[in-house]
Amino acid sequence: MNHQLTVHVEALLMSAGYCLHPEFVTLRGGSLRSAAYPAGFACIRHPSRGWILFDTGYSPRFQELTKRLPLSLYRRLTPVRQEANSAIRRLAGIGITAEDVRYVVLSHFHADHIGGARDFPFARFLYPQRSYEAVRELGPIGATRAGFIAGLLPDGFADEAMPIERIAPYVPLPKEVPFSGGCDLFADGSLIAIDLPGHAAGQIGLLLSTVNARVLLCADASWSSRALRENRPPHPVAGLVMSDRKAYRETFERLRSWQAADPELIVVPSHCREFFDIACKEVRRL
């Protein structure tokens, strides 16, 4: 397969807290019992751009901002654990400081993906424009339904963060890939942002290449690798928190098709326990 990726990066997979949810919701035919879902994030080292985060997981601010209605409904539906193991603390454990992080790429604006954003004041934030536009004007009830907590974002986010579409050229992907193309974040083939609609409006994944592997960080286009392998998409009730059920199913099927056509591609869902350690004891390198 002819790939356009030309610059290798280093990718570290970590988690910042986790939530509990009945398994059957995220995995068709799964157990009625609650399962743990790590809030995964990726720390990527670019040879010239430095350290880049893809999402941030939870932080203690989640509990602080969900004490009162209607946001308290959010944490009751998805109880959060170990949110003190925030991205900034996980990174400090391997010698990476807030000053070292030069970019933060947000896949979408659910709280478990933007929870630690305020801990990186030196970073430039990049995001899919349609995803932010879908939530930025929501009132308290609408924001709760959309899983969005505005207080998790840095002050001045709307003025200082940059939509990916404004800075990154659109590039085609090989014809075998069931997505037409994506935004080349640094115009060097190292990080390609690909639209993965359905779960949240405007959600993106990130296609990258390390020395050892080609990787698609697929955010919440699937909640687990097992779901993709076994063709077990979420229960219909999960559609209540999706922006577009039909688009989600189409994206899910395209990911399965891509994996079938390219078995060496590693697809990493943000909440998959196969890639992210719930106890926050390990860093996985790809």
From TrEMBL:
Similarity comment: Belongs to the metallo-beta-lactamase superfamily.
InterPro entries named among the record's database cross-references: MBL_superfamily_lactonases, Metallo-B-lactamas, RibonucZ/Hydroxyglut_hydro
Pfam families to which the protein is assigned, alphabetical: Lactamase_B
Domain of life from the UniProt record: Bacteria
Entry function: Counteracts the endogenous Pycsar antiviral defense system. Phosphodiesterase that enables metal-dependent hydrolysis of host cyclic nucleotide Pycsar defense signals such as cCMP and cUMP.
Keywords for the protein's UniProt record, in alphabetical order: Hydrolase, Metal-binding, Zinc
Name of the protein in question: MBL fold metallo-hydrolase
Species: Cohnella terricola
Catalysed reactions listed for this entry: 3',5'-cyclic CMP + H2O = CMP + H(+); 3',5'-cyclic UMP + H2O = UMP + H(+)
Cofactor requirements of the protein: Zn(2+)
GO MF term list: hydrolase activity; metal ion binding
Residues covered by the Metallo-beta-lactamase domain: 38-271
